[in-house]
């Protein structure tokens, strides 16, 4: 945008115009009157203050048409009778494309639609701007003049700013009346499709993880002070981007780094800064200037069809939001200590597991993220917290505001925004139905988990936090098959000292009582980063310095954890499981380190566990071909199918685009799993599986068909898994599966589904 303020005769008018419009809007809202009379006053004031003969407001109706709701200058009889069809005329075009239309001679424009009832034939110039809320067009604000007037960029921005304020009042029902507000809320209603990442249904209210700041103070008293605020905020923004880029943990991710680099370029763009400074000099607060320049730039960028610009638009949205948060002195909703509604549905572009754990869990119901997949760690934490969660919800952040009612259906992946009463009623039924099903599962809780043909199956839960412990009793699970110790580290801001770790592990063992607990040693790296541990930059963090690799290189961390575990389990059985073992010497080395700690305790006379079991996770394919060498070294093994599948298929578990591309029920994956079962039988080593796969009934059924007799899953999956097991003939399935594995290729899912249908196996 090139505005030469000095050369523009209208510049002097636009400055007081915005100020005066804002003041008049405030006064109008404070005066008594109904919605229609307020709207009439608003158009009168804008027309006067913008020196336009006409000012009109059109609002979008349910069928997409635009109805004239108020006008100053056009025939009053046309109000509520004139309707422009979807896309009709320049006003329709403005609404369809969500961009301003600025025409010095509107009648010459091919899209112009002449409506005699308005009496608009005498007007030439037209400026129309969309009335937008959260990316949805609610209507159009128009000014017209008799002269062939070229509206300036400032005029466009003044009108855009005015439309922004009008939109807020429209939504609240303060102008245009409750009927229109109801219709607007219907317009804002919508369904966004994503992919379920943690089962459940949540009815609640949106909280944006990175809250959008609503600018309430638009006009500044002291322009110099506002320029200083803007400058200081820009400096902080740049510094925070530099910091993020140099932070090893974040910079390692290739895509993430590209995005940050693009942000940095933007943040140093003089044009952007100059436009904001100009807006401040016109009398806006720094906050309002950021918002206005953002709206104007966004509008220009939206005109571009080029995907490159669409992406830059996201950068701009994000940067402007960051800048506004800095100006308002805010961070993320969790760190702001915001009081969450009791039915919070968190909405974020992206979120790490530690960020999710920052929130008050008792108030969370649902989670929606624009990225992420079911095997990502944030999804695992969402499951642990019992949240209904959906990932891959494209552009949802743009469409919602904090406080909006929403429903997350993590059965289908649908997110209903501002749902109608009918949708809420339908979902309330669905929730009741699910509750009935849960009651049915609870009734099964104390029954032994045995298949129809008498095979005993042990169902265990995956856990990682103290809040998970009550799930053991609630679900009727037989133990904790995987305790992800790193989650405790992720919710801590500093490295937990040995005594604190000991106390936590003791509480877990106490909580579990007689039920066994398998503690997995620290599995950091990949998408699990600890802010207080320096991590080198890596191109492929999932294949990088993580889990046992890190523990062996930094034995100090590992030893402290082992000491804490040994002390916590004094007099009781202790199971330690080592993650990401790729070769046998790694488990030998880990065992040697553990052995040394046991000796130390003995020397010091500190009470030790009554029994110590050490196991390996099988989650790296290399180990599949060394099972005979591995088994003699371990007391048990547990398949980590999340990582095993990611490495087997070379498909990043956290990348929604590829995570579901390959089926864990494919012949190749099932054969790999069978190798583990066979090696376990051969060596008399107990074999379990603790990836997300065990939590889906059809997958769990296949695992039993392969010979697994212990599987570990999220607590919510125990009931459905048990119901499946009670209706299954494991012997028949094993025979069918063996035949399928011998004769088929590709995914066996359809065959297994057919087996379950024919045999009456209960899958959910
Ligand atoms: C796995 O990889 O399957 C597993 C259970 O561990 P995590 O999901 O924590 O990597
Ligand atoms: Mg793993």
Secondary-structure map:
Elements: H1 11-30, H2 35-49, E1 54-60, E2 66-72, E3 83-84, H3 89-97, E4 101-103, E5 125-133, E6 136-145, H4 153-172, H5 177-187, E7 190-193, E8 195-198, E9 201-208, H6 223-246, H7 248-251, H8 254-267, H9 270-281, H10 286-302, H11 307-327, E10 344-348, H12 353-357, E11 364-369, H13 377-384, E12 388-391, H14 396-399, E13 405-409, E14 414-417, H15 421-444, E15 458-463, H16 469-475, E16 480-484, H17 486-490, H18 498-512, E17 517-520, H19 547-553, H20 555-568, E18 573-578, H21 584-604, E19 611-618, H22 627-630, E20 636-639, H23 641-648, H24 656-659, H25 667-683, E21 687-689, H26 697-706, E22 710-713, H27 718-726, H28 730-743, H29 749-759
Helix pairs in contact: 1-2, 1-4, 4-10, 6-8, 6-9, 6-11, 8-11, 9-10, 10-11, 15-27, 18-20, 19-20, 20-21, 26-27, 26-28
The structure holds phosphoenolpyruvate (PEP) and magnesium ion.
- The count of DSSP E runs of length 2 or more, i.e. the number of strands, is 22
The SS-based structural class is: alpha/beta
Q: What's the architecture of the largest domain in CATH terms?
A: Alpha-Beta Barrel
CATH topology name of the largest domain: TIM Barrel
Fourth-tier CATH superfamily name of the largest domain:
Phosphoenolpyruvate-binding domains
* Portion in beta strands: 15-25%
Given this structure, which CATH class of the largest domain is correct?
Alpha Beta
Largest sheet: 8 strands, mixed
Mean pLDDT across the residues is: 87
Adjacency order of strands in the biggest sheet: 7-14-13-9-10-11-12-8
**Bound heterogens, unique:** phosphoenolpyruvate, magnesium ion
How many alpha or pi helices? 29
> What's the alpha carbon Rg, rounded to whole Å?
31 Å
Residue share in helix: 40-55%
Total separate domains = 4
Low confidence ranges: 1-15, 248-256
Q: Give the end-to-end Cα distance, rounded to a whole number of Å.
A: 57 Å
Could you state the oligomeric state of the chains shown? single chain
Shape, per Cα inertia axes: elongated
């Amino acid at each position: 945008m090139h505005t030469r303020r000095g050369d523009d005769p209208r510049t002097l008018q636009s400055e007081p115009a915005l100020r005066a419009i804002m003041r008049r809007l405030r006064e109008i809202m404070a005066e008594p009157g109904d919605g229609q009379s307020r709207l009439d006053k608003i158009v009168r004031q804008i027309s006067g203050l913008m020196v336009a003969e006409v000012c009109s407001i059109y609002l979008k109706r349910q069928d997409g048409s635009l109805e004239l709701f108020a006008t100053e200058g056009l025939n009053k009889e046309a109000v509520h009778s004139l309707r422009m069809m979807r896309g009709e005329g320049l006003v329709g075009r403005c609404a369809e494309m969500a961009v301003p239309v600025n025409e010095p001679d509107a009648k010459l424009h091919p899209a112009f639609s002449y409506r005699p009832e308005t009496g608009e034939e005498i007007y030439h110039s037209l400026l129309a701007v969309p009335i937008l809320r959260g990316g949805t067009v609610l209507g159009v604000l128009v000014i017209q003049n008799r002269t062939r007037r070229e509206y300036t960029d400032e005029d466009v921005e003044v009108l855009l700013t005015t439309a922004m304020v009008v939109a807020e009042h429209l939504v609240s029902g303060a102008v245009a009346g409750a009927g229109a507000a109801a219709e607007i809320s219907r317009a804002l209603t919508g369904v966004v499709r994503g992919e379920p990442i943690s089962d459940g249904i949540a009815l609640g209210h949106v909280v944006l993880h990175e809250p959008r700041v609503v600018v309430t103070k638009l006009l500044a008293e002291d322009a110099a002070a506002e320029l200083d605020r803007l400058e200081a905020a820009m400096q902080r923004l740049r510094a925070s981007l530099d910091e993020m880029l140099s932070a090893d943990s974040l910079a390692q991710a290739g895509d993430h780094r590209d995005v940050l680099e693009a942000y940095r370029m933007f943040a140093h763009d003089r044009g952007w800064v100059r436009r904001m400074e100009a807006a401040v000099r016109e009398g806006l607060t720094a906050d309002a200037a950021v918002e206005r320049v953002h709206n104007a730039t966004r509008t220009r960028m939206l005109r571009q069809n080029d995907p490159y610009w669409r992406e830059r638009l996201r950068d701009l949205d994000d940067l402007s939001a960051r800048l506004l948060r800095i100006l308002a002195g805010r961070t993320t909703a969790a760190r702001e200590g915001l009081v969450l509604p009791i039915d919070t549905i968190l909405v974020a572009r992206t979120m790490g597991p530690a960020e999710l754990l920052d929130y008050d869990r008792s108030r969370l119901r649902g989670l929606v993220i624009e990225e992420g997949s079911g095997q990502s760690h944030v999804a695992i934490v969402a499951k642990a917290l019992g949240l209904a969660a959906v990932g891959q919800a494209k552009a949802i952040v743009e469409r919602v505001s904090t406080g909006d009612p929403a429903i997350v259906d993590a059965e289908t992946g649908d997110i209903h925004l501002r749902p109608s009463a009918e949708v809420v009623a339908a979902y309330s039924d669905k929730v009741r139905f699910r509750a009935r099903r849960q009651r049915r599962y609870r009734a099964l809780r104390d029954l032994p988990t045995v298949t129809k043909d008498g095979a005993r199956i042990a169902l265990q839960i995956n856990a990682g936090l103290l809040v998970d412990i009550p799930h053991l009793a609630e679900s009727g699970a037989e133990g904790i098959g995987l305790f992800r110790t790193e989650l405790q580290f992720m919710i801590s801001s500093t490295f937990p000292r040995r005594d604190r770790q000991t106390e936590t592990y003791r509480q877990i063992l106490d909580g579990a009582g007689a039920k066994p607990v398998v503690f997995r040693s620290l599995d950091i790296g990949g998408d699990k980063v600890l802010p207080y541990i320096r991590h080198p930059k890596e191109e492929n963090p999932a294949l990088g310095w993580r889990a046992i690799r890190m523990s062996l290189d930094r034995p100090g961390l590992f030893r402290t954890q082992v000491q804490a575990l040994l002390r916590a389990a004094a007099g009781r059985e202790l199971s330690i499981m080592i993650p990401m073992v790729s070769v046998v010497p790694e488990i030998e080395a880990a065992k040697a380190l553990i052995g040394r700690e046991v000796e130390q305790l003995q020397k010091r006379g500190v009470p030790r566990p009554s029994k110590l079991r050490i196991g390996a996770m099988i989650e790296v394919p290399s180990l599949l071909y060394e099972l005979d060498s591995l088994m003699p070294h371990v007391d048990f093994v547990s398949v980590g199918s999340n990582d095993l599948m990611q490495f087997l298929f070379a498909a990043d578990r956290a990348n929604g685009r590829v995570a579901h591309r390959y089926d864990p029920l494919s012949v190749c994956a099932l054969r790999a799993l069978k190798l583990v079962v066979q090696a376990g039988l051969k060596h008399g080593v107990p074999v379990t599986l603790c990836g997300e796969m065990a939590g889906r009934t059809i997958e769990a059924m296949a695992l039993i068909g392969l010979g697994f007799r212990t599987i570990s899953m999220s607590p919510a999956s125990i009931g459905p898994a048990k119901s499946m097991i009670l209706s299954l003939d494991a012997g028949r399935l094993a025979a069918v599966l063996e035949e399928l594995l011998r004769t088929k290729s590709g995914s066996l899912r359809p065959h297994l589904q057919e087996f379950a249908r024919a045999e009456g196996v209960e899958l959910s």
